[in-house]
């Protein structure tokens, strides 16, 4: 029956034999610099294949992630524009039958839209339904506000794609 000491001695002898075999093949036990590791992986049969596959796929993966990020930015801009237009339409619909001048109501609604959004919206990008700024609309008449915003997203400092975001909101006059 083998004792624990016999088993330990066999394990030590095997590890010494493996170390000698590694040294005879030119394998070193001390760590290599990063460039040396990379070259060694390229020189070994299939281990370099993974690096080459990653080198081929990495640009496509980066393009995919970039597209997802820019789509998220465009969607955030659209939601911000829609929220601001809705706030402006609600404000305009509530100010239809007040004692204040109605032309002022459109100016206030424009200010609400510009203030409610983190986008730089100018008053020329905002349109109102016909008669909304003239005042005196009967209760229940729809007041429609539309705003457009240029969506220019430079991808890697190249602004080759642009779009126009548009949001519309209708509210009944009160």
Question: Topology of this structure?
Answer:
Layout: H1 4-24, H2 34-43, H3 47-94, H4 102-116, E1 126-128, E2 142-152, E3 162-172
Antiparallel strand pairs: 1-2, 2-3
Identify the notable features of this structure and list them briefly.
alpha+beta, 174 residues, three-stranded antiparallel beta sheet, single chain
Tell me about this structure:
The structure is a single chain. This protein has 174 residues and is α+β, with helices and mostly antiparallel strands. It has one domain. Helix content is 54%, strand content 14%. The protein contains 4 helices and 3 strands; from the N terminus they run H-H-H-H-E-E-E. It has helices spanning 4-24, 34-43, 47-94, 102-116; strands at residues 126-128, 142-152, 162-172. It has a 3-stranded antiparallel sheet with strand order 1-2-3. Helix 2 packs across helix 3 (47-94) and helix 3 (47-94) packs antiparallel against helix 4. The longest helix has 48 residues, at 47-94. The protein is elongated. The mean pLDDT is 76.
């Amino acid at each position: 029956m083998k004792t624990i000491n016999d088993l330990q001695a066999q394990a030590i002898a095997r590890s010494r034999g493996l170390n000698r075999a590694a040294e005879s093949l030119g394998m070193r036990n001390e760590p290599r610099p990063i460039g040396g590791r990379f070259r060694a992986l390229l020189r070994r049969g299939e281990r370099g294949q993974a690096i080459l596959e990653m080198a081929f796929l990495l640009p496509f993966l980066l393009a995919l992630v970039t597209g997802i990020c820019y789509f998220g930015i465009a969607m955030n801009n659209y939601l911000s524009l829609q929220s601001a237009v809705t706030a402006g339409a609600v404000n305009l619909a509530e100010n239809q039958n007040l004692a204040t001048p109605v032309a002022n109501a459109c100016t206030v609604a424009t200010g609400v839209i510009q203030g409610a959004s983190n986008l730089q919206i100018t008053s020329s990008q905002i349109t109102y339904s016909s008669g909304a700024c003239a005042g005196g609309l009967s209760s229940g008449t729809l007041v429609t506000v539309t705003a457009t915003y240029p969506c220019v997203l430079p991808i890697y400092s190249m602004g080759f794609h642009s779009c126009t975001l548009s949001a519309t909101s209708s509210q009944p006059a009160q």
